[in-house]
Amino acid sequence: MDSEILFILILFGAFLAVSLFFYFVPIGLWISALAAGVNVGIFTLVGMRLRRVNPSQIVLPLVKANKAGLDVNVNQLEAHYLAGGDVNRVVDALIAAERASIPLSFERSAAIDLAGRDVLEAVQMSVNPKVIETPIISAVAKNGIELKVRARVTVRANIDRLVGGAGESTIIARVGEGIVTTVGSSEQHTDVLENPDHISRTVLSKGLDAGTAFEILSIDIADVDVGRNIGAQLLTDQAEADKNIAQARAEERRAMAVAQEQEMRAYTQEMQAKVVEAQAEVPKALSEALREGHMGVMDYYNMNNIMADTKMRESLSGISEEK
């Protein structure tokens, strides 16, 4: 019984040892490299395992590069892998650049990949330019008519400026700014409609690809639509605002006039009250004069006769004026 348990433990230990051996020593990968004519030492593969590098991520791209005739070694690929780069994509980009006769070194390709850009896509874009379509850009000519412009920008990747160069959003923003400036400098919107390629030539001459990761090959105006009459709308809004201001000022003057009229009416009533008050003092004065002997009875009657005669003359004068 003890011998059987010992035999099982020996088998298990042997199996574990063989598994660890083939894990740290990828014999199959080493044989594939030798068959492809790539000289990768067995101890180099073991060292990759110890450095926590997946040997297949290094050996297979190395075989691919060797078959393509690229001068790439194991240390370069392993260093790029440890830096967090995509070794397979870098090798594919180098092969594509080699076939397209585009000068691209491994260091440049690795730097582009570590910068977060797709180096393979950049090489493909250098061979096959990409078309970027801008959103609808609203611009207003000098006569106040709005134009809605949509453009297509053909760009080619600039390998030398991929690290640190601006992206597609910058290209779109600069093209939009150029379109707005060009349309805004046109006297009539019909000038733009008659000759839309003037926008392309003017915008393209501004060197909009400076500092970007692309080279602008052409700018084509895809569509131009006539929008609102912004100038007329602004004039209408200004006239409406002026009218409201004038109405407010007129209402202010009317309110002041009404207030002044009310003040004059109150002042008139006050004056009339003073007249009535003064007239009420006359009988008192006459009575006082009669009582103190300053005026006789005959003087009073004569005064009444004079007042009656004056009223009669005033009435007769009023009748003659009516005739």
TrEMBL record:
* Protein name from the UniProt record: Flotillin-like protein FloA
Q: Name one Pfam family in it.
A: FloA
User: Which parts of the chain span the membrane according to its record?
Assistant: 5-24, 30-48
The family line of this record is: Belongs to the flotillin-like FloA family.
Task: State the superkingdom.
Answer: Bacteria
UniProt organism field: Veillonella absiana
Q: What does this protein do?
A: Found in functional membrane microdomains (FMM) that may be equivalent to eukaryotic membrane rafts FMMs are highly dynamic and increase in number as cells age. Flotillins are thought to be important factors in membrane fluidity.
Q: Sorted alphabetically, which keywords does the UniProt record give?
A: Cell membrane, Membrane, Transmembrane, Transmembrane helix
Q: Which NCBIfam families does the annotation name?
A: PRK13665.1
- Is Transcription among this UniProt entry's keywords? no
State the compartments where it is located. Answer: Cell membrane; Membrane raft
UniProt feature coiled coil, ranges? none
